[in-house]
Design a protein that fits this description.
248 residues, mainly alpha, two-stranded antiparallel ribbon, 11 helices, 54% helix, globular, Puta_zinc/iron-chelating_dom, YkgJ family cysteine cluster protein
Length: 248
């Protein structure tokens, strides 16, 4: 019988990470240095940097898990966390959608067709969700109770349709206890969040865009205004579909 970590064990291991694990900014800095020294076009620099920095968040979590002796029990098709509100900057949204545009035609069209159905099917819940203030403390629970799936969640496979470029919140929320705690609770206490990694990731991607911008390169984000504009992922997708994201 598989043994899952108890809540107190997760707290103890998390404390060990906080007290003894040294995050190394160099892993993120090296990605930026390599890309700025490359001969890639500016769009390729941005999109490659976007994905490599997201991957580095995953790698850093793996290093911390190894340090603390933790193994996540999340599995493909377990999509309970795909009903949480996902908030990201306009800059990240544009990079995510531009990355999706580079997917294969079949994969891209499947996402676009899914969005057509999604925004019709969930219109009422979306109106409720997107009217919530994402900066308020009680919004997360209220949003989760709507049972509104992420627009990137494939309803057939229960897998992310853009997994490799999924946002930071989707990567940093992990469960090391019995998976049923996610099924039985809107906000279970057991899962652990590595949201503190956002500072490292976002600082690096901002440095990359800023360097290109100051060098006069053609960037597809409005710098720096896009850096500080935040909204829900479904709201950004809706604006992207309407063709208004670049105008706002």
């Amino acid at each position: 019988m598989e043994r899952y970590l108890k809540h107190q064990e997760i707290i103890d291991k998390s404390k060990r990470i906080n007290d003894s694990y040294a995050l190394d900014q160099q892993f993120f800095d090296e990605i930026i240095d390599q890309l700025l020294d490359s001969e890639l076009e500016s769009e390729d620099v941005i999109l490659t940097g976007f994905q490599r920095l997201l991957d580095e968040v995953d790698h850093e979590i793996g290093r911390m898990e190894q340090f603390a002796g933790m193994t996540p029990n999340c599995f493909k098709g377990c999509a309970f966390c795909c009903y949480f509100p996902i908030v990201l900057s306009k800059m990240e949204a544009k990079m995510m959608f531009r990355s999706i545009e580079h997917f294969s035609e079949d994969r891209k069209q499947k996402i676009y067709d899914h969005w057509d159905r999604y925004y019709k099917q969930h219109k009422e819940k979306l109106n409720q969700a997107l009217s919530m203030n994402h900066t308020e403390d009680d919004t997360k629970l209220a949003y989760k109770k709507l049972n509104l799936p992420c627009p990137m969640l494939d309803p057939e496979t229960q897998a992310c349709m853009a997994y490799e470029v999924r946002p930071i919140p989707c990567r940093t929320y992990l469960n090391y206890s019995d998976p049923k705690v996610c099924a039985e609770n809107h906000l279970p206490k057991e899962p652990f969040s590595y949201e503190f990694l956002y500072e490292f990731y976002f600082g690096a991607i901002n440095e990359l865009i800023q360097a290109l911008y100051e060098n006069g390169e053609d960037v597809f984000v409005d710098y720096p205004s896009d850096v500080w504009s935040y909204d829900y992922l479904p709201a950004w997708i809706e604006k992207w579909r309407e063709g208004t994201l670049h105008e706002l």
